Amino acid sequence: PLYMTLQHPLQINNHCTDLHPNGIVRILLEPRSLFAMKDDCRYKWRHGITKHKLVFLPQQRGVLKRDDNYRRMSATIRKLGTGRKRVQKSDVAWVDPHCRREIPIANKQII
Questions:
Q1: What span, in angstroms and rounded, lies between the C-alpha atoms of 68 and 53?
Q2: Whole-model pTM over 0.70
């Protein structure tokens, strides 16, 4: 588990340090969880996940201590607006960075 921190600044920019009353929220994200942001949460609140060695779990569940081998993964998916550069049609679905090889699209119907 880890915590995502949301901050609601008085001004919508990355430099404002003044927050609205109750302008900090920490959300515990359990393993394999999904957190979707939209509307005010996405556009008016700053958000981030920091790497901590100690995670204090709620409801008296104790403290999780991470070793140096700990890693986390985060995926961000956004909708591309019209007029943005797009990838041309391809027979390659994605490139596996570990094997350094292209993974072909299994069904040519997929665009």
A1: 8
A2: no
